[in-house]
Amino acid sequence: MSIRIRLTLWYVSLLGIVLILFSAAFFGVLKYSLTTEVDRTLQERAQQVALGIQAQNSLDSILSVGGVTLPELDVFSSRSIFIQIRDTKGQVIKKSSNLLNFTLPLNQVIFTSIQQEQPHLKTFPIGDVELRLYSVPIRLGNRLIGMVQVGQPLNEIQMTLQRVLFFLIGGTIAALVLVAFLGMFLARITLRPIERITMTAHQIVSAQDLSRRLPVAGTNDELDRLSQTMNSMFARLDNFFRAQTRLSADISHELRTPLTIVRGNLDLLGSGMLGEADRADTIGAARSALDRMSRLVSDLLLLSQADAGLTLKMNMLELDGVILDVYQQAQALSNGVKLKLGRADQSQVYGDEDRLKQLLINLIDNAIKHTPPGGSVTLSIHREDEYVLVSVADTGEGIKPEDLSHIFDRFYRVKGQKRKGSGLGLAIAKWIAQAHNGDLSVESEPGVGSAFILKLPISN
Known about the structure:
Blueprint: H1 3-56, H2 59-65, E1 82-86, E2 92-95, H3 108-115, E3 120-126, E4 129-140, E5 143-153, H4 155-207, H5 222-271, H6 276-307, E6 315-318, H7 319-330, E7 338-344, E8 348-351, H8 353-369, E9 376-384, E10 387-394, H9 401-404, H10 425-435, E11 439-445, E12 449-457
Parallel strand pairs: 7-9
Antiparallel strand pairs: 1-2, 1-5, 3-4, 4-5, 6-8, 9-10, 10-12, 11-12
Helix pairs in contact: 1-4, 5-6, 6-10, 7-8, 8-10
């Protein structure tokens, strides 16, 4: 089911609930109001008849004559209001002419209420018509002389309520149908930009042209933010695939070169034309090329394992001791660059010793590669609040500002560098730092040098 249809169904359902509740409340209030009006009319007519009887009879006349003079009931009745008078025994002694041969009903409940001098109001079903009947006692002096009954059929009210109910049901259905069409139209207009975004995104994917971007209307609404987010995603994907393409070419080149060296040296060894010294040099060159290939494959394998959730071997470590070991191991990499050991505060961290050493060796090796002979690389460690900061600072060529934000990206290589690696070393270092709940950052100034700073939480 499409979003457009779901939105329309939501519109219709919500409006339907509101209209049904409103209609039910309106119908109930109208029915109560009409019934109350009928009751008020019946009570007024009954009161008028009772007062008429009392006005035409006095206590003296009753005592002398012994009877009750009853007023003309047609004066109080109308086409839809019927009146009759019963005596204390329940016998009809007078009724309005519009009753003809019909008599207003009397049951034991009404008779008992009148004997207790209490009025009674009730609806009686008579055939297909409901009759609203009000019965009230009549008193002359201190004596109960009978009751007045005033009735009115409710057929007119029922017809009015039926017409109102038909109007409410018909109006609700018409409103829901209208809202359904309007909802579909509005949903189509609202979702049209999403359809354009979807179509453009499909075209980008189908054409494999990640350089294209979705249009941004500039309204800064949800759709604009969606387009901007997807454009950012396409930009990152474009950069990633470009980096992968470059990496594939670079890896092919990196592998092709040592393989060519190994093959050439094996051919020389197989020719039997080399002396003992030359044979040793050839074997050494082949071994060096194989080591180069091994490092590249190892880096790729490590990143693949990291993506799959590689588990580190975490232990409590004396970080200053780890730094000293790395410093001693890195002496063999100096290549004319002076390696210095700076401040070394004692600190304990919870980490994987082998991975931390790999991180620091990567940083030192990277610093040496980009520092000319005669320059220096300084390794230092100091505490700061709840963290320990390990710094690898060099006096090399530095990093350009436009490269700083990408320096830890996988496969990223700074353009124009004479000495190129696989573009994986710093990405591996960054991952190791984050796997220790830490971070790795860089500060650099072209022509002055760079400082890579590893930040790790201190363990107590």
